[in-house]
Amino acid sequence: MVLNELVSLSNIYGSNEELVLAGGGNTSAKDGDVMYIKGSGTQLATITDEGFVKMSRAALADIFTKEYPSDDDAREAQALADLTAAKMPGEENKRPSVETLLHSLFPHRFVFHVHPALVNGLTCSVNGKEAAEELFGDGFVWIESCKPGYTLSKICYDKMNAYKAQTGKDADMLLLQNHGIFLAADTVEEIGEKLAAVMSKLNAAVVREPDFDSGDYDGEKAQKCFDVIYELYGDDAVITYEPSAEAIRFAESPETAKAVMKPFTPDHIVYCKAEPVYGFCQACIRGAVNEYVDEHGYMPKIIIINGCGFFAVDLTPKGSETAATLFNDALKVATYSESFGGPLHMTDELSDFITNWEVESYRQKQNA
User: What pLDDT, on the 0 to 100 scale, is given for residue 364?
Assistant: First the structure.
C-alpha cells in the first residue's frame, strides 16, 4: 500500500540527521485522486500513517487556475482557505504541511523535501545556480528566494510548466534558493537513488568540511559568559554551549562571524531567531543583548563569543538543544557555501516575513 511505503520512506530518511533536523522536511504520496501529505507539527522520523493528511488532488489543482487578489495578505488568506477546503472528509482536525501545494505540482507518485546543510551550502551561496548547472546540467529547476505559501507555489507552477515545455519532461528536482531540495519519483527506490546521486556530486564538489571536534577555547572566559547569561536570562535559562573548532573559527572576529550573523533558511529563523548577537567578552554580552532586545522586543537565542564559540539559550532543554543544533547547521551551510562563491543569506524583507508568518509560528509551537 502506498501509505505504508510513504511512512517507511519518511522514517528512514527522517532519522538521518544529515538530512533532517527538528521538524524539518516533508513527504507525500499520490494514490489515484488522493494525495497523502505530512501533517504540520509531525516529524518524519516518527510519523505514522495517522500523521499524514488526505487531500483531494483535484481541489489542489483547482487552486492554480483561480484568480486571487493582488494584495499579499488577501491572496494568501484565500489560498489558505482553499487549501484547507481541499482536505478529504474525516481530515478536518489535521493541518497539512505548509508546502502541500508544491508537492501537488509533481505528477510523480512520491515527493521528498528536505533541507540538508550540504544541499543548502549550494542553495545558500552566491554562485549556487551556476554551480548547480555545472553539477546537474538541465536536470533541475532553480527557484529564486521568495515568500512562502501560494506565492512560492505559483512561481514553481509556472517554472515547472516552462521546464516541461522546453525539455519535454516533467521536472523531478527543484532547488529552492535559501530553502532546500524537492525530489520526485514513482518509487521509493528511485527517490533514494536520486538523493544519493545529488549528495555524491555535492560531496565531490566541496573543498572543505566543517570541523566539529572540540576547539581550543578559553574555559575561564566561557564560565564568565555562563554567569552573565544566567544574570540576563534568569536562573531558569537552559544553556547549550558549543565550543567546536568550527564555532570558534567563525567567532574569531566580527568579520568572520558575518557569515552566520544572518539566517540562511526559514528553519534557522524558526529555531534560532533571525539573528544571533556577537561579543568579545562578558561585558559585551550585556550591551549586545540589551541592544538586541531594544531592537527586536525579545531575547536572542544564539550568543557568539570570541574565543569561546557560541551559546544557545532557551527556557527548555529541548528548545536550547534544538537552537544549538540548527545553528550548527548554519555553520555547516556557511562552510559548504565557501565552495560555491560564499554565503548568500535571506533578505531582511524575507526574514521579517518568516519571523511574523503565522504558519511558521504554528510549526515552532508544535515542535517545542
Answer: 46
